[in-house]
Write a structure and sequence with these properties.
The protein is about 50% helix and about 5% strand. By secondary structure, the protein is mostly helical. It has a domain at about 10-135. Strands 1-2 form a two-stranded antiparallel ribbon. Strand 1 and strand 2 form a beta hairpin. The chain is globular and about 40 Å long. Residues about 170 have low confidence and may be disordered.
Length: about 180
């Protein structure tokens, strides 16, 4: 049994791990050049995003996390944190991808060990910071994010209201929409 390293990841370790992952395109990642860098350059400063280690992979992950949150505004299903985790791990975790090849496509279908061994930190993906900058930072700050507003809803999940969404923004309307969706499924 090998002992797992708990300290910082060296640039060499990160490079070796990323090399094993394969090309960005084969994993469904936005291309570093020009997509991720351009989106980062356009949005990071205006949204006040500050990451400790701004690697190309972190910039790509920001684009994936932002896209996942916006998609959650279009189709409100499942727990938002798990959706973001799934989107990131499916691109940057070999354990997660291997579990997917065996039929477990979301964190809900995986063992605790697979989730713990997601390798996101090794790949340079700051999950906690991305969660903070795409979701919790925007709670009760209507209109400050140009793309969406965030609300807490019952059972500990979040509602994403896209900018320009014509529906009413109060909790009663959200509850009615959820009940209607549940009846139609």
């Amino acid at each position: 049994m090998t002992k797992r390293k708990l300290g910082p990841v060296s640039p060499e370790e990160r490079g070796q791990y990323l090399a094993r992952l394969g090309s960005d395109g084969s994993r469904g990642c936005p291309l570093v050049e020009p997509t991720s860098l351009k989106v980062w350059d356009l949005l990071a400063k205006s949204l006040g995003i500050e990451l400790d280690d701004v690697t190309p992979a972190a910039k790509q992950a920001f684009v994936v996390a932002l896209d996942t949150v916006i998609e959650a505004g279009r189709h409100a299903t499942g727990d938002l944190f798990h959706r973001i985790f799934d989107a990131l791990a499916s691109r940057w975790s070999t354990s997660f991808r291997d579990a997917g090849a065996r039929g477990a496509f979301t964190v809900y279908n995986m063992t605790e060990q697979t989730v713990k061994d997601s390798e996101l930190l090794i790949a340079g993906i700051p999950l906690d910071a991305l969660w903070r900058h795409t979701v919790t930072k925007w709670l009760k700050k209507d209109g400050e994010n140009p793309f969406y507003d965030v609300r807490r809803v019952p059972f500990g999940t979040y509602q994403i209201i896209l900018s320009g969404d014509p529906t009413v923004r109060d909790g009663a309307e959200w509850e009615m929409r959820n009940r209607a969706r549940a009846r139609n499924q």
